[in-house]
Amino acid sequence: MRAVFKGLIIIAVILAIVLPFASSNPDGLEATMEKVGLEEKPVYQAPLDYGETWGQSFTMGLLGIILAFGAGYGLAKLARGA
Fold first, then answer.
1. Quick one: the chain helix, strand, coil %, rounded to 5?
2. What is the largest CA-CA distance in the chain?
3. How far apart are alpha carbons 43 and 49 in whole angstroms?
4. Are the C-beta atoms of residues 25 and 34 closer than 8 Å to each other?
5. Cα dihedral sign for 14, 15, 19, 24?
6. Per residue in 64-77, pLDDT tens?
7. Which contacts qualify for 61-67: CB closer than 8 Å, 24 or more apart?
8. Confidence at 33, pLDDT banded by 50, 70, 90
9. Cβ density class 44-74: b for 16+ within 10 Å, e for less
10. Which of 17, 22, 20, 13 is nearest to 54 (CA)?
């Protein structure tokens, strides 16, 4: 279990270092939609955003990592117990 927490801390540190280098340009799909003139009409609106500042982005990224880890860990525990 100790190794798991070390791994999560390493991921958080990597997130903090790499986050400022994230591109603010649209990805390929968004760029193509802009060129063609299509407008995005989402079916689902996410409750949280990535944030505007580094601190907000780091917090949301960390929250996403923790939620994804928790879901994966819970599913692994269920699969192992079944």
1. 70, 0, 30
2. 51
3. 16
4. no
5. positive
6. 888 999 999 999 99
7. 61/15, 61/19, 62/12, 62/15, 65/8, 65/11, 65/12, 65/15, 66/8
8. confident
9. eeeeeeeeeeeeebbeebeeeeeeeeeeeee
10. 20
